[in-house]
Specification:
This protein is of the alpha+beta class. The chain is built from 3 helices and 7 strands. A hairpin with a 2-residue loop joins strand 3 and strand 4.
């Protein structure tokens, strides 16, 4: 069974939601165009932005085997990633409900 890790991307201090959303769109567009095989490792996106350590954040569920590569690409774009707990694993059945959008990879 595939297992996933929680990856949380943070905005800059005092960054407005619209600006952070725009930077996330740019990140995922870059991933789709340049790293499609890695993008397919992103299973789900949190349905809402949150405040994490005082800044806006958005969470994603990513395949364990791709987490390091995804983090490297994200950091190259200037976005900050919270440290991942590599022992905190989730099954697809746990990533359901209104708080997650599963990302189709057709």
């Amino acid at each position: 069974m595939q297992e996933y890790l929680l990856l949380t991307i943070q905005g800059a201090p005092d960054e407005a939601e619209a600006a952070f959303r725009r930077r996330l769109i740019e990140l995922w567009t870059l991933m789709l165009r340049n790293y499609p095989e890695i993008y397919e490792s992103v299973f789900a996106e949190a349905s809402e932005f949150e405040i994490d350590t005082g800044v806006l954040s958005r969470s994603y569920m990513v395949e364990v085997g791709a987490a390091t590569e995804i983090i490297g690409i994200i950091q190259q774009t200037g976005l900050h990633v919270q440290p991942i707990d590599m022992d905190d694993l989730y099954s697809p059945q746990e990533i359901t409900g209104s708080e997650w959008f599963q990302i189709p990879h057709d």
